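Look over this record as teaching material.
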Amino acid sequence: MKAIILAGGLGTRLSEETVSRPKPMVEVGGKPMLWHIMNIHSAHGINEFLIAVGYKGEVIKDYFLNFYAINNDITVDMTTGKTIIHDGNQPNWKAHIIDTGLHTQTGGRLKKLQKWLEREEAFMFTYGDGVADIDIKALMEFHKSHGKLATVTTVRSPSRFGRIAFDGDQVANFYEKPEAAEGWINGGYFVLNPRVIDYIDDDETIWERTPVERLARDGQLMGYRHYGFWSCMDTLKEKMFLEEQWNSGKAPWKIW
């Protein structure tokens, strides 16, 4: 199974950190948020990633091109210019870093990755700014059990986020920014059948609006309730919260 991670947005609400780098490269505990998200997936056996870049995508490309040097000890012989990278324990990852455009919306980025997906193989789809102690294997089993096109992981969170209304496990309605609704929100960590891409029109399509709303109306969207830890990193305050969690040595999302 492959995992798509959206990593191309401007990250304007975290402008203190995103002037020089995309939000998924903002560090928590000295490691990019992207690294944390990839480790969450890898802990459940998902090691192939499609990383949809846009804004300052070159920063993400540079990180992976230099991944071994950054994450291992190195020796540089200044007289000859010879460099030795001393291998350590490295993740068994394959990362495809794909430019999906500077101003492409979330649905448009997914549509641009269609050719990288197997026709009927489900895939993970999430954002580059959210961490959770989610049991991805249980999430995938839930997705297989209902036979619908899409599963969204739902979490509890403050009212500033969009809400999700349930009918049993089926998503009855998807509210992007409602005045009032059930206390469940979109936590990312979708499991999707590639046929959901038919719900996306073009680069301007926002995944969380028309496509997801249509999937809900068609009875093709189910919600997996996650009762554990979840946090996004939209603001500097949220980044500081995640730093505190990591520095405590008990970060809930560190499941690897």
